[in-house]
């Protein structure tokens, strides 16, 4: 028996809502983890960074990033990115889907259709 996928995000994010609705509509069991409410461990974040790269994980287009002081926006290393995302978890590109050891960022129906044939 395999574990259910875990969908990480924040409840107020429209893209996370779309991903949840899609999974529910397909009858796919999953666990939802709101990292704003439930927190996020450094080990989990580092595992994601190792899987997809910190550059992909930092959402530079979001409101949280735009509101950062200019010096904090100058992230150049994995350690800086992890530290910044732990302080500001809404900087993480959402949703993060962890399934069978793989990490998928963002949501597009066609992407999820390939993950859950």
UniProtKB/TrEMBL annotation:
Domain of life: Bacteria
InterPro entries noted in UniProt: Arsenate_reductase-like, Thioredoxin-like_sf, Tscrpt_reg_Spx/MgsR
Pfam families for the chain: ArsC
Family the entry assigns: Belongs to the ArsC family.
Protein name: Arsenate reductase
Native source organism of the sequence: Asaia spathodeae
Lineage: Bacteria, Pseudomonadati, Pseudomonadota, Alphaproteobacteria, Acetobacterales
